[in-house]
Amino acid sequence: MKRMMKGVLGLLCLLSIFPLGAAEIARVTVPDKITLEGDGHRLVLNGAGIRYKFIFKIYVGALYLPEKIPTAEEIIASTGPKRILMRFLYDKVDKRDLEQAWREGFAANHDEQAMLQLEERLSRFSALFSDALKGDEFWLDNIPGVGTRVSVNGEPKGTIPGDDFYPALLRIWIGSEPVTAELKRAMVGQE
Q1: CATH of the domain at 40
Q2: Residue 22 confidence class, pLDDT cut points 50, 70, 90
Q3: Above 70 in pLDDT, residue 148?
Q4: What total number of domains does the chain contain?
Q5: Which residues 6+ apart lie within 8 Å of 137 measured at CB?
Q6: Facing residues of 56 across strands?
């Protein structure tokens, strides 16, 4: 009986630390539900994983949607609110490297015509970021009818207009040429 009580107490302690459904990835707690600031949209975790570059852990990436969606194509086509959360694990990612990564991710998933339509907004988007340090958190939110809202460590940095920008941004992680296949599977919820 004592042994069972210890087990139950241990489980209750764990549940108080991590809410039901929360995931821990690389020592980062990823909540199973969030509420978007300002508009109150409640979103659920679709999936989360780690962005590796070579052997280095760069960030935890998580995708939140109004409800779980099982395929990348359906996620990209959906028009509701969304959040991509990036929590940095690497000591420092230079602003220059971030900008290059944004551009490479867009270029890998869009033809020349689409890139021409996105270019000015991609430049504005890239300018919203400075160096990313270990522990920094980026929130990239799709606000229907408004655009792509960017926050760094909870501080709003700006909004990129247009309903076409967020689907283009999502393709970096879950498009036909994702940053990594493993992170795509994780964010789509297939791992």
Answers
A1: 3.50.70.10
A2: confident
A3: yes
A4: 1
A5: 85, 86, 87, 88, 152, 153, 154
A6: 53
Residue 5 inside a domain? The answer is no
Q: Which domain, by its residues, includes 164? A: 21-188
Residue 137: other Cβ atoms inside 10 A = 16
pTM of the model: 0.87
The predicted model gives 5-28 an average pLDDT of 53
Give strand ranges (E) for 31-76.
Answer: 33-35, 42-53, 56-65
Round to whole Å and give the CA distance between 81 and 136: 22
Encoded tokens for 21: 């459904």
* Residue 63, in any domain of the structure: yes
Asked whether residue 85 is assigned to any structural domain, the reply reads: yes
pLDDT band at 3 (very low <50, low <70, confident <90, very high): very low
Rounded Cα distance, 94 and 78, in Å: 32
Instruction: Kindly state the DSSP code that residue 111 receives in the 8-state scheme.
Output: -
Torsion over CA: 11, 13, 16, 18 (sign): negative
Q: Is residue 13 part of a domain?
A: no
User: Which tokens sit at 169?
Assistant: 């941004």
Say if residues 41 and 66 touch (Cβ distance below 8 Å).
yes
